[in-house]
Design brief:
This protein has 268 residues and is α/β, with parallel strands linked by helices. The protein is 40% helix and 16% strand.
Length: 268
């Protein structure tokens, strides 16, 4: 039986197979852009003991359906940054998450923090498109790529000025990420085959990551207690989507994840 990930990747591969744009021209266009905002750097510039929050602009999910169908990406971005979000993550997958490149552009234009293009990168054109649509970082999901693709896309991201967040789930994928030289690694607590969350996964994986790696915990982070657990485990940053985007007080939700009192580090 096809998994969630299989079905999503099939759609993206079908689109990529029909894309006839020359990669070299896209690379040249990307290289001509102004310097990106430093995504990884922003995650390590927060006060000691405080997690950097990557707050996600997310309209829907394949497992839960609509979260905030009429989401205002610019307004949501401003609410997140008012709470001290270090970076944003913006879904650009149209078919399964209801996102778009327009959401990313609107969110990034509204604030000054770096932005991750959250999507299923399966082609070199996807990496270039992330840069061209205004992203500062691109997501590379190890489970969706073979070794050659992971290495090539990571190198291409670096070439065009993007940070690459390499997403892993287990020890074997961590080894693959380290082999390509990833300095920004995210542990997704959500199983992409079943979409179930294992909240112990990130804690188990953290001590296996070497010094020099910026560690990001992803998915299943519900509030300050989860944040404290993950910071104690050694994570620099938390990528949080559903719990903040569906909150009635998005600014307060981000501030609470940081463990920060009212009024601290509200402006970026």
């Amino acid at each position: 039986m096809a998994t969630y990930l299989d079905r999503i990747l099939d759609v993206h591969r079908t689109v990529a197979a029909a894309d006839r744009r020359p990669v070299d021209a896209l690379i040249d266009a990307a290289l001509g852009l102004a310097e990106a905002r430093g995504f990884a750097d922003a995650l390590v510039e927060v006060p000691a003991g405080e997690p950097a929050v990557i707050a996600e602009v997310k309209r829907r999910s394949p497992s839960r359906g609509d979260l905030v169908a009429d989401l205002d990406p610019a307004g949501t971005a401003m609410e997140y940054v008012a709470g001290g979000a270090a970076c944003l993550s913006v879904l650009t997958d149209v078919d399964h998450f209801g996102g778009s490149p327009d959401d990313l552009a609107a969110a990034r234009d509204a604030v000054g923090v770096p932005v991750l293009r959250k999507d299923f990168t399966i082609d070199a054109r996807d990496v270039c498109d992330a840069r061209l649509m205004g992203a500062d970082a691109v997501l590379l999901i190890a489970a969706a790529l073979d070794d050659a693709e992971l290495a090539d896309f990571h190198a291409l991201a670096v070439e065009v000025g993007l940070d690459a967040l390499v997403e892993i789930h287990d020890e074997a994928e961590l080894e693959r990420a380290l082999t390509v030289g990833a300095r920004l690694i995210g542990v997704n607590q959500r199983d992409l085959a079943t979409f179930e969350v294992d909240t112990a996964r990130a804690v188990r994986m953290a001590p296996l990551m070497p010094d020099g790696v910026v560690r990001v915990a992803e998915s299943g982070i519900q509030g300050p207690a989860d944040a404290r657990t993950l910071v104690h485990a050694g994570y620099h940053a938390l990528l949080v989507g559903e719990s903040v985007v569906t909150s009635g007080d998005r600014t307060g939700a981000v501030r609470a994840l940081r463990g920060a009192p009212e009024g601290s580090r509200n402006e970026r």
